[in-house]
Amino acid sequence: MTTLGFIGAGNMAGAIVRGAVAAGADPKDLVLTDVNPDAAARLATELGVRAVASNLDVVELCDAVVLAVKPQVLSAVLAEVRESLAERRPLLVSIAAGQTLEKLGRMLPPGLAVIRVMPNVNAMVSAGMAAVCGNAHATADQVGLVVDLFRGVGQVIELPEKDFSTFTAVASSGPAFVFTFIEALARAALKHGVPKPLAVRIATQTVLGSAQLLLARAEDGVTPADLVDMVSSPGGTTVAGLVAAEEAGFSPAVVRAVEATIARDKELGALA
Questions:
Q1: What is the DSSP letter of 3?
Q2: Which of 5, 204, 233, 246 has CA 20 to 30 A from 23's CA?
Q3: What whole-number distance in Å separates Cα of residue 19 and Cα of residue 82?
Q4: What local confidence, expressed as pLDDT, does residue 269 receive?
C-alpha cells in the first residue's frame, strides 16, 4: 500500500484528502503537515489521517508526496527536504501553478519521478477538472496512481505539458470567469426587480444545468453551438439577447481573457 503525504493542508489538499478517503483509501496511509499546525490538526481530526510536525517527517514516512504549497515558497520547502528526498526517493506530485517539470527538476536531486498536476477549485465539491503530466522518470503506474487520486475529486486527463498554460486558463482560471458571468446574470435580474439571493440561485442553477446538459449530449457529438441553436427560435428573445451580447463583445472578451491568462501563466513559469 502506498503511503501518501501532503506538504500543505489548505483547501485543495483538504479536498484531495477527503476525496481519497471517500474513494476507499485507508486514512492511516495518509500523512500531512502544514505551516499552520491547526489546519493539519483539523483535517486529521475530521478524517482520521495522520498529522505530523514537519515537512521532513512527511518525506521520511511516505512513498509519494504531494507538494500542496504556493509557488513562491516551493523552492524553500524543497531545499529543506532535499537530502531526505535524495535518500528516500519518493514520487513527487506538484500542484503548484506555473512550476514546470523542468523547473521542478532544477530544485530536486537528479532522477526523481515527478508528476505535475493542475487541478481547479471545483475539486472542493468533487467536481474538479485536473490535468496530469509526468517527467521522464515517472512510470505509467505512477501516473496512473495520481490519475486515480484526482478522480476522487472530479475528472482527470493526461495532457502534454506544452498545453498546461492553456489548460490553466480554461480550467483553473475558468471558474472565476464563470462566477463573474453568474454574478452578471444575477445583477441583470436584480436590475429588473428580482431579489439578489433569488437571482443568484436562478443564475447558478441555469449554469449548472446547462453544463450538465452539454456533458450528457456531448457523447452524441452535440456541440455548444448545436445547443445554442436548439434554444434560439427565429426572431425570438434568445436571439435578441445573443446579438446584443456579441455586439458588446461577449465572445471576443472571453477569448481575450483566456489569452491574457495563458500569457501570464507562461510569464510566471519563465521566472527563475
A1: -
A2: 204
A3: 29
A4: 72
Q: What pLDDT is recorded for position 27?
A: 95
Contact 152, 16 (CB under 8 A): yes
In order of their start, the domains of the chain are: 4-160 (3.40.50.720), 172-270 (1.10.3730.10)
**Between residues 196 and 98, which one has the greater pLDDT?**
196
CB 161 within 8 A of CB 103: no
Query: Could you give the CA distance from residue 43 to residue 62 in angstroms, rounded to a whole number?
Result: 18
Let me know if 56 is exposed, middle or buried by CB neighbors in 10 A (0-12, 13-18, 19+): middle
In degrees and rounded to multiples of 5, residue 90 shows phi and psi of -75, 165
Give the residue from 73, 176, 177, 158 showing the smallest Cα distance to 117.
Answer: 158
CA distance 198 to 79: 50
Per residue in 226-257, pLDDT (tens digit) is: 999 999 999 999 999 999 999 999 999 999 99
pTM, two decimals, is 0.91
Q: Are 67 and 92 in contact (CB under 8 A)?
A: yes
Task: Using a pLDDT cut of 70, give the percent of the chain over it.
Answer: 99
Helix, strand or coil, per DSSP, at residue 24 = coil
Specify the DSSP element, H or E, that contains 68. none
Q: Compute the distance between CA of residue 95 and CA of residue 117 in angstroms, rounded to an integer.
A: 5
Residue 33 bridge partners (DSSP): 7
